[in-house]
Write a structure and sequence with these properties.
2 domains, two-stranded antiparallel ribbon, 12 helices
């Protein structure tokens, strides 16, 4: 089977999956409306958000079904991309819920979290379906045997690595603040013991509290993982496992391994941080007010908010830049072989064990 046929089958499966998702998502929204289940993070109006889910799921399913039946058309592509944007908005703050669940804490609204997860899956499927060109390919592309070149591991351009440095440095004040609290220090008028009591009162899990008691703030550890992910996207060791990874060194890193968390983090942190900075700017300018929460004054709460939101915004934007660079640098390259040539001959690149071709020495 040639590469074009394999790509066509993959596209057909993606289109079908998008159709099934659209029906399921619309059904989920309708079930929430009929049962009176609120999809809002804070509760409230049970019907409004449910009908919004139905309004996204039904057109998405119809568009995907039309693509399966008739092939891609410009109007269908616009509809799919519009639904993709809407589902991306609905998946907003999913990462925060995932982090909460990782530490054994319960989310405020299981239905809201389920909606965000479904919306995130839909955004990926809709984006993939909108990129399909099944009708164009089947009509115009000749069937030729071709190989796939695996790009040589490479570092990101200097501008992208600069963005990674900025995203890394943005987390330093946040990590320092959280670690200082975890070690018992006082910052913004709140002592470490008070922060631990607040976490316990808010239902923090035993794992979270244990780490805090040992002077290790879980969110600071997650920030460290975020920095590790960011540099994996811009350095060659994010494409081939390096020597310091036992049993895996020298093997190719699956593209989805870093891209999946990077895209999830970027889709959550970047808009969350950018919108948050806009809000904090209004608070700082006196246009709106902000509650002081567990802090002695609004000024203390504002200081902590600036440190956290700035870190999320800058790191999120850096993830967007780094993920795009990684996507482009790791895309398989199709190399049609010359007539009469065989893999490994002088007319074409040498075949690799994975069925592709080598683009250079590792």
């Amino acid at each position: 089977m040639n590469t074009r046929d394999m790509n066509t089958r993959a596209e057909q499966r993606t289109m079908t999956a998008t159709l099934v998702w659209g029906v399921a998502y619309a059904g989920f929204g309708l079930a929430c409306v009929l049962s009176g289940t609120s999809l809002s993070h804070f509760g409230g109006d049970a019907e409004g958000m449910g009908w919004a889910v139905v309004a996204v799921g039904v057109p998405a399913a119809l568009a995907a079904g039309a693509v399966v039946r008739y092939g891609m058309r410009p109007a269908l592509r616009v509809l799919l991309l519009s639904a993709c944007v809407l589902t991306g908005v609905m998946a907003f703050s999913l990462l925060m819920d995932v982090i909460t669940l990782m530490f054994g804490q319960g989310v405020d609204s299981p239905a809201s979290t389920a909606n965000k997860a479904l919306a995130a899956v839909g955004a990926v499927l809709l984006a993939a379906t909108s990129r399909s060109d099944r009708s164009d390919r089947s009509d115009h592309l000749p069937v030729v045997p071709d190989g796939t070149a695996v790009p040589k591991p490479s570092a990101a351009p200097g501008s992208v690595q600069l963005a990674a440095w900025v995203g890394t440095l943005a987390f330093l004040p946040y990590a320092a603040m959280k670690t200082y609290w975890a070690s018992g220090g006082t910052f913004a008028g709140v002592a470490g013991e008070e922060m631990l009591a607040v976490s316990e009162r808010n239902g923090a899990s035993g794992i979270f509290l244990a780490l805090e008691s040992w002077g290790l703030d879980p969110t600071a550890l997650l920030a460290l993982l975020g920095v590790f992910l960011l540099w994996g996207l811009v350095r060659p060791w994010g494409q081939v496992f390096p020597r310091w990874t036992p049993f895996l060194r020298g093997r190719r890193v699956p593209r989805s391994l870093p891209l999946a968390p990077a895209l999830l983090g970027a889709a959550t942190l970047a808009p969350y941080g950018v919108v948050g900075i806009g809000y904090l700017a209004l608070v700082t300018g006196g246009a709106v007010t902000m509650g002081r929460g567990d802090f002695p004054s609004e000024g203390d709460a504002l200081l902590v908010a600036w440190i956290g939101i700035t870190a999320f915004a800058v790191h999120g934007v850096a993830l967007v830049v780094a993920a795009r660079s990684y996507w482009l640098r790791t895309r398989p390259v199709r190399l049609p072989m010359a007539t009469g040539s065989t893999p490994g001959s002088a007319a074409g690149p040498a075949a690799t064990p994975g069925g592709g071709t080598s683009c250079g020495r590792r």
